[in-house]
Structure formats: structure tokens, C-alpha cells
Write a structure and sequence with these properties.
The complex is a heterodimer of chains A (about 400) and B (about 400).
Chain A: H1 2-28, E1 35-40, E2 74-75, E3 84-85, E4 95-100, E5 106-115, H2 121-131, H3 139-142, E6 146-151, E7 154-162, E8 174-183, E9 186-195, H4 196-201, H5 203-212, E10 214-215, E11 266-267, E12 276-281, E13 287-296, H6 302-312, H7 320-326, E14 327-329, E15 336-345, E16 352-362, E17 365-374, H8 375-391
Antiparallel strand pairs in A: 2-10, 3-4, 4-5, 5-9, 6-7, 7-8, 8-9, 11-12, 12-13, 13-17, 14-15, 15-16, 16-17
Chain B: H1 3-11, H2 13-37, H3 39-47, E1 51-53, H4 54-67, H5 77-82, E2 87-90, H6 92-110, H7 115-140, E3 142-149, E4 153-169, E5 175-182, H8 183-186, E6 191-192, E7 200-207, E8 210-214, E9 233-237, E10 251-258, E11 261-269, E12 276-280, E13 283-309, E14 316-327, E15 332-339, E16 344-346, E17 349-356, E18 362-369, H9 375-404
The chains are: A alpha+beta (about 400), B alpha+beta (about 400).
Chain lengths: ~400, ~400
Amino acid sequence: MLGVMFKSFLLPLHTAIGVTVFLLGAVALRAGKIEVYEIPKEHAGHSHSGNSNPHGGTSEGSPHGGAPMAQPSIKVGKQPEGWRENPTPGAMRAASYLVSNAEGTEAEMAVIPMPGMANIELQLVNMWREQAKLPAITEADLGTQSTAVTIAGEQGKLFDVASTEAVLGGKYKARILVAMLKRDDFTWFFKLTGEDAFVASQKANFLSYLKDVSFEAPQLPAGHPPMAGGGGGMGMGMGQGMMGGGATVPPGTGDQPKWTIPAGWTEIARSPFLVGKFQVTGDGGAKADINVSMSAGDGGGLLANVNRWRGQLSLGSVDEAGLQKISAPLELAGLKATLVDFAGEGAENGNAMRCVGAIVSQSGQTWFFKLLGDATLVAREKEALVTFVRSVKF
Amino acid sequence: MSLDKIFEFFASLKLAVWVLCLSLVLVFFGTLAQEPLGLYLTQERFFQSFFVDYASMAAAVKKTLQMVGVYLPPSTAEQVLAAPRIPVFPGGYGLGFVFLLNLIASQIKTFELSWNKLALQAAHVGLILLLVGQLLTDMLALESTMHIREGQAKNFSELDRFAELAVVEVTNPEFDRVTSIPENVLAKEGEITSESLPFKIRVNKFYANSEVTNRDPNGTIQPPAMQGLGPQVTVREMAPETQMDRRNMPSVTIEASSADGSLGTWFASFWIQKPQTLKVGDREFEISLRPKRLYKPYTIELIDFRHDKYPGTEIPKDFSSMVRVVNLATGETRETRIYMNNPLRYGGETYYQASYDKDDQGTVLQVVRNPGWLTPYLACVVVSVGLLGQFLMHLVGFFTRRRNA
């Protein structure tokens, strides 16, 4: 009898459990309702490292998750009148501004620090000239293309490239003003682009901005050892371990994927922008370097990177069709990879040099493996590079 | 079919065996589907649904065949998202629900209020508790992240995969008033009103994933909005992200209007981190679209992040975050170290060491709030006690029979 009574009690009991579960479910769905609440005052500071964040706190930097990106930073003296911060400054920019006149004509000023970039001035000037639909110049003309300009108390170069035909939307002429300054491991570009006459009208503001800007000293955490190279450098922005000031990282430190180093390669100190650096020597003191680096996204694109490498071998830029001729797909389990191979000569001594590079895309990142040096030695080590790339456990 | 037969069906042991076998198959295909579909879509389609749809199951089957050497073109997440959801296999919720009914029905069927059956009943109750507990966890648990740089303190964590349109009134010098409009409300693209706002918001367009670029002022592309930063950008709708290391970048265009008429159209996006200011009379508001924030009544400061490696190797030995918890309401201040298997439990939340910045100067903590965290422990204790009791009763019975034989 008692059993039957208990049995009849069980059904409502379990029904009650079910109802409770669904009620709790409804509570969980409260997350989908508009909420109003009060919080203590909090405001973001004025940032020029490209990471300003709504209502304080840190941002996650990279738009697609992962660790935030580091950017060397600058300190702005006086922001010229009418200039406003660019809401979508884009990657690699330490600062970016927009300026427009009453008619809605707009120009953009971007501050871009780039690691390295030595010996490719001609390629850069020709790239800007190409944007302005102007013919390329030769090395002999390079000296006439720039004037001296003061950037943060140091002497840099100012390039003024103006188009002769309407290139903006087929309606307006364009002008590109670029101030360039090499500091330690970086080359800084201050680039004002837009409609010809409007950019010309902003030139005084641009020069005044360059004069007032300053480079922020590195902010090392307490107890951090001083960085090699010292001397100014760029401030620590957010994340990703990019250090300024010409610092080098001794071999065997920092995050590296697992790989098998080929025989004869020696791991050497690397700049903080590299994941790994090796050297190999050949007959008669011939040398070649192997650099491994990684960028988020496509790292600026295959073509742009290959052209940058070509600049290091005193070679001109190639277009997509030209790239096809010097590249081949690289078989790599499950990953998209490309192998490029081209020969040129050293910018300093005119020796025969060669570059073999492997570019691997994986999980939203692009890895660059570059073997560059004496042409004979590079030819000998090409197979070792491919084996090395295949050994990497990303 | 009479009610008795239905009851018998749900109370049968055969059904329990079927459910367990189907669960094995579901877990197998759900595991393989993660490769083409990614974790989150697989979770939703295989385990957090009553039925698995044809397209999702096809993706898993193709992957299975590929593993045994039969190559069929793999399905993509985009194809699966676009396909009609035709049910072909029971999903996680479906099997769990049937199993719950089975346990309840069998318990009702076999119930006897006697000492002999008590242990078995306890084991069943424990299993029911386990299932209900898991359902509670699934519905109520919240996982968010807190990213802190060294020397910085934070009082909120973020749900990285959920967006909110935050309209923050900054008029009061003492505090900010946040009106948080979640993305599922924005996605309905309707009119939104709140007593906290002196204006209505109409959502013109919500982009679950988007790409935002600078707009060429001389170009012909129309801006998404005319106020704030709207005229300076262009927006493009993108397919939803399914990769684990990428996330959607939502955007929204809204029109604000007060009793005096329209206040203009505004554009907010994950791509634009800076809030835009909207003034209505003498009240000032800041608008931004951001990962949904969960504010805490306390702050957590990162004192030091450590990334230790075994000497002479690159093999990580330990990641740890030395943090200081400051609760102004209780006057409590305490320092603690968070590291693997040693989370911080505070204020009903658990902070796990989850990730870190590559420069080793910032930490990412996973913040888990799970009100039902005790139920699995309780369920396991009840099941264990029940099974132990059942075993002991048999053992005692066995020895008694031997002694009497």
C-alpha cells in the first residue's frame, strides 16, 4: 500500500524536476535580454599604438582572436587642426589620421613602422610612382627624388610624388607625400595620400606634425634585463613580443615550433621579429642566412614579400605573372605552401646571390622561411631548406 | 497504442541499450565532424540539438570514409549552414531526453519500498541527477575570458563569441550607465526601446560577420551610416567563421530617433574599437559594438605573469599568473597564483589559466560560472553508494546462503 502511494508520488516529483529544469532554462535565456546596469567611471587613454579600447581595459588587438599585436609607438606632439583619428587604421600602423575639407575631399596620413627595409629605397619610390601612374625611375635618378626633412629632431627624407593624370576614381590627380626615417631595426614611414591639391594644402601641417612627433622609449617590465642595441627604439605596444631598440634574441629562446635543424646549419642570435635564424657556411667563406618569421593573416601578401626580397638582391619588382615564373607549389601535408627561387647580386658588393623562400599558410598565419646568400651555397642548401620546412610542426 | 504500452516502451531495458549504442555512434561521428565543421558548429549540430541534420551527418560520414581510404569531396561549414536541416539521427539532447524518460519510467515500474531495492533505486536516482545536472550545466554555465596585461586591473570578463551593442550614458560624473543590447536582439533588426534611453533604436542591418574598410570619399560606394564614423567606412557581409582560432567580426547599422525626430544613422562594429558619441539634449551617450561584458563587483589585477621552461629547453614547465583580487564592497584584498590545475575560485566563478600574450606580459584567464557544478559530484556519490549497497547486499546474501547450505 505504502509502495503504491509512493509510486503515485513519484510522477509529480519527476514532473516537478522537469518544470524546474525548464524554468532554469528560461533564466539562462535571460542573457538574450536588454540589460541596464551602472559601472564605475572608466575611460580609455589617448593611444597611438592602434589599440584604443572602448570604455577602458585592454583590447584583444588582432581582430580574429589570439594574442594582441605589438606595435612600436609614437608620441604625438600636436595633432594638426582638422586631422582626426582614423577609426579603421588598418594593420601595421602606429597611427593613422583622416583630414577632409568642406567639399568632402579626404586625405589619409598613416604612420607605419616596418622592420628592416634596408636597400630597397628605389623599389619603394617606384611603388609610389606606380600608384601615381608615373614611369619608374632608375638608381641614377633616386638622389633627385627626395629632400631633407626633420622628423622628431632627426634628419629623414621626404618624397613628394604627384600624378600627372587623374588616377583617383578617374576624376582627380593624386599626391603621395612620404617622410622616411631609419631608426635602429625599423624604417618609419609617414605617408600622406589623397587628392593632389588637397594634399599640397596639408603639407605645412604634415611637416609640423613630423617636427612635433617623438618616438616613445621602450617600456620594459620591472626586472627586465636591458635590451641589446639600446638607443631609443620603439615603445612596447600590446602583445606579441615585438621589441624595439635593435634588440636581438639569443638562439634557443622564445616560442618556436618544433623542427629538425639540418646538418651544417648553426642557430644564431635573431632579431625579435624572427622566430628563428640560422647560418650556413660554404667554401671560401661563403655564407647564407636562413630567416624564419611569422605574420598574422597573409603577412602583406606573397607578391609584396617576394618583391621585398628581390629588392635585397638588387632586383626589380615582379607582377603576378612574373611571380608565377619564379614560384612553384611546395608539397606540404595539408598546408598551402609556395616555393620561390631567384638570383641576383648583393647590394653592397655585387656578388652573385640567390634567394630561396618557402611561404606557408596555416591557421590564419603565414610563415616565411628565407634562405638568402651566396648563390652556389644557396643552390646546395635548397633541398635542406625544403626538408627543414617539412620538419616544422606548426 | 495504449498508454500502458507506451509506458512499457519507455521503461524497457532494451530502450536503454539502444540509447547507449546510439550515443556511442553519435560521439564517434560528432568527433570526426569537428575536422570539417569546427568545434562550435559540431557541438550545436550533434550534441546541443534533438536531431542531427543530414548535411552535418554527411560531413562526418565523408570524413570517416576518407579515413578508410575512400575519398569524397569534404563538406564545408558554409555548405552545412546553408543546407536545410533534415533530421537523420538523434542528437545529444534527443538521446539525453529519451534516456531520462527511460530512467524515470523504469524506476516507476520497478519501484518497491523495500530495503532490498533501495540501493538500486539510489543508483537510478544518481543517474537521473547526473543527466539533469549536465542539462543544468549546459543551460546555466557561462564561460568567458579575462585578458589582463601586467599592472592592469579589470572588473569584467568578455564572452568572445557574443556581441553587445553598448550604449553607455556618461553624463553622470559618478558612474556610467550601460544599456547592453545583445546580438540576438540586434539580429531581429527591429525597434528597440529602453527606459534608460531617451531615444529609440531601429536596427537597419545586423552583420553577424563583416569586413570593414576605409571608404574612398571620391568613390561611389554608399556609406553604411551618416553620423559618427559611418561616412568614413564601407562594410561587407562575410560568411560566418568556423575555425577555432578565428572569430566573427559583427557590425550593425542603427537609426536613433527621439520625440523630436531622427538623430541620424550610426554604424558600430567590432572593427571600430572607439566608442562614438551621441548627444541628446544635455545627455551624452557612447555607442560601441563589443564582445559582451560580464561585470564583477571586484577587480582582478595582474601583478606578474610567469612562463617557466625546463632548463636548456623550450619545453614549457609552467604558466602562472600572480593576481590581486580587490573587493571594495567587502574590503577584501588578497594575492594568489593561478596556474594549471590550481584555479582561483572567487565570487561564484572559477578563474583558470587559459592563455597568455606572446611577449609574456599579459595573461588570458578563462572565467567559468557554473551554478550546477556540485551536481555531478553529488550524483556520483549517490550512484556509488547505491552500487556499493547493491553489491554488499548480494555479497551478504551469498555468504548467508553458503553458510546455510
